[in-house]
Specification:
The protein is an all-alpha fold and 150 residues long. The chain has helices at 2-15, 27-39, 47-52, 54-62, 64-115, 118-128.
Amino acid sequence: MSDELDIRIDNDLAQNDSGNILGSKTIEDVIKKEAKEEQEPSSRFSISRTLGGVIIARFAQRQMKLMLLICALLILHISCRYMCQKKLVELDRLEARIVEAHNKAIVCSSILTEKSRESNVLKRLYETGDSTLKTSSQPPYLIKVNSEEL
């Protein structure tokens, strides 16, 4: 009986043209299958995968365009904010100049008002002796003109 078993095994090996014992699978197929099983995780999220960075790396690879867009928008936001702050500083500087010019205009106006008072004008004219103008002793009066005479 053992001779018959040996003959069957020899016949099976002879019929199989690739020479493997596992039927139609080759050793390479078995190794590839085992390698794939080792690579496939038993669960989607595991502590070792998370700490190893596999999940984060895959997420980053999938969302790379979004992250680049976010970085570009962030840079644009920072540059716009910087430009806005520069304009605010310039605005504050110009407002300070306006206040300074306004104060100067008020001082000049008060000096002009002081110098153009009637009493000061007459006083200066008397001091220089340029004019014989005197203060009127009569109050001003209204001159009536007929419209027909015009």
